[in-house]
Amino acid sequence: xxxxxxxxxxxxxxxxxxxxxxxxxxxxxxxxxxxxxxxxxxxxxxxxxxxxxxxxxxxxxxxxxxxxxxxxxxxxxxxxxxxxxxxxxxxxxxxxxxxxxxxxxxxxxxxxxxxxxxxxxxxxxxxxxxxxxxxxxxxxxxxxxxxxxxxxxxxxxxxxxxxxxxxxxxxxxxxxxxxxxxxxxxxxxxxxxxxxxxxxxxxxxxxxxxxxxxxxxxxxxxxxxxxxxxxxxxxxxxxxxxxxxxxxxxxxxxxxxxxxxxxxxxxxxxxxxxxxxxxxxxxxxxxxxxxxxxxxxxxxxxxxxxxxxxxxxxxxxxxxxxxxxxxxxxxxxxxxxxxxx
Amino acid sequence: xxxxxxxxxxxxxxxxxxxxxxxxxxxxxxxxxxxxxxxxxxxxxxxxxxxxxxxxxxxxxxxxxxxxxxxxxxxxxxxxxxxxxxxxxxxxxxxxxxxxxxxxxxxxxxxxxxxxxxxxxxxxxxxxxxxxxxxxxxxxxxxxxxxxxxxxxxxxxxxxxxxxxxxxxxxxxxxxxxxxxxxxxxxxxxxxxxxxxxxxxxxxxxxxxxxxxxxxxxxxxxxxxxxxxxxxxxxxxxxxxxxxxxxxxxxxxxxxxxxxxxxxxxxxxxxxxxxxxxxxxxxxxxxxxxxxxxxxxxxxxxxxxxxxxxxxxxxxxxxxxxxxxxxxxxxxxxxxxxx
Lengths: 341, 339
Description:
The complex is a heterodimer of chains A (341) and B (339).
Chain A: H1 15-40, H2 54-63, E1 70-72, H3 78-83, H4 88-95, H5 106-109, H6 122-134, E2 141-146, H7 153-165, E3 169-175, E4 178-179, E5 182-183, H8 197-200, E6 204-208, H9 212-229, E7 233-238, H10 257-261, H11 267-278, H12 283-306, H13 325-337
Parallel strand pairs in A: 1-2, 2-3, 3-7, 6-7
Antiparallel strand pairs in A: 4-5
Helix pairs in contact in A: 1-2, 1-11, 1-12, 2-9, 6-7
Chain B: H1 3-9, E1 16-19, H2 20-34, E2 38-42, H3 58-62, E3 67-69, H4 74-86, E4 90-94, H5 105-112, H6 115-118, E5 128-133, H7 148-152, E6 158-160, H8 165-177, E7 182-187, E8 194-197, E9 208-211, E10 216-220, H9 223-237, E11 242-246, E12 249-251, H10 255-265, E13 268-275, H11 280-292, E14 301-305, H12 313-319, H13 323-335
Parallel strand pairs in B: 2-3, 2-4, 5-7, 6-7, 10-11, 10-13, 13-14
Antiparallel strand pairs in B: 1-8, 6-12, 9-11
């Protein structure tokens, strides 16, 4: 039976939190925009922008507790990494082509390695959350997925396993209305992933994913519900992927400017208007945030530009804890024959 | 392997006569008693004790937290095992039958096999995936498949198959203690054959000579080892001394053992249940030609299942290498070049 989840609208949101969210969203946007430029300049082989999903990503992290919880990202979670204060040089190691999965410490960062099978990590969140519960710990796993991933069988299996095995997972669905080139109605006939939650006997909640306060409240409530009851929750943040799927994409082939206009107001503008209207921030504060973001990105850029390709020997490390004789022999042969030793 | 693990791995109750199914059950029970991080889960492994009773009574001994039934979904089982390993557990999931490993293929190949690499050693995967495997029991479709070639091809996985109760006990203990993911293929046709399980494990890495001989080497694993020993018995009546090399580990393959045995006999017949094309026999033949090229007296022979979908019970015995087909293979390598 589904245990009722408290109404998230009662969760407190103060001005400090909103200012913090705003600063993180601005850094995320600036970094995301820069990353597209860096790809055009040849620094990154490819990059999947998240433009438009900043409120959903930042709000979701602020609603979790990174002293105990673990986040399971996809490949489009830069805002999550920024909000979780992950080492961004390590994070961009993935996009630079240095290392698939990134070079940050996934355990210390509370962010599992980036992986690119759509829906592939959602089951890992279930196993991890179950494992923490078996240890008597109160960690909640946050599984990031999108409307496209919701079509994967693994996502169904994960929601069902989590519900049956009582694994405290928040399935955080960023419904950005596009699965690469395919619109939501061609992916999810009911147009809501959270609507499926009832079938699993767990709470499902839809939230305005471009309202960071609403995302934070819903996430906070969902995480605490999962923690208290070991019951998973499906939380669906309705948002819009304002950029292309990736830097190699051409959205003009599958959506019009009129389609894009349905995205509504930009989440950063919305938060800025709110902070201005309430008097929680003024022009000079916003200017400082922009300056800080620019400085941070310039510093990161300098490090990324100076970063070296990984040494060739990286190929052979960590395939196994105990390498096979065959792999050891291949490594030795490579050392004799390669000029990248 | 460290001496501590070796010490702990000795079968605690001395010499016992057990079936392979009982030996595997004892190995799981002893591993769980030794290491509180070991978890057993899968379809029907709890109250039922598994469809082959390999997990019999484990739930009553270790509780429902450490031995639990999952929903009926193999990808879910393996994906959950990956997450449990990330949380520091040592999962031993069961895939109920070989043919149902395919729904879990992505989680095994793209996730389980790569997590240690992807995380640069931060998230090792000490997971042992038990799979009742191979044919020979008149089972329905998808209950008689050979998976070794698929999984031996995947970087990051190790693959092993025991051929008798003693090996089943000790190799399963070894696999569970391994820090890397191991695909553990149990020859279900041998589940009920008894054998002695002794306290001393013996060598646990690499191949073992199941029967010594000098005229040709039969290379086999799983249920084919016993069949090859039977072939060797018959050949001995005609004065032909066949060596049977029980490969055990299908990844990594024991190259020195191949080189030593076939370098000595000069002739090799590889026997496996899986279809010929793309089977592990091809990899073995390449290794043997490289390791023993100058000493080979005949081309390497392969006696295998045919390139057909695994058949229904009526035709199973036509598909799996039988004594006669293996003897024909032996004759081909012995008579090669005699005209």
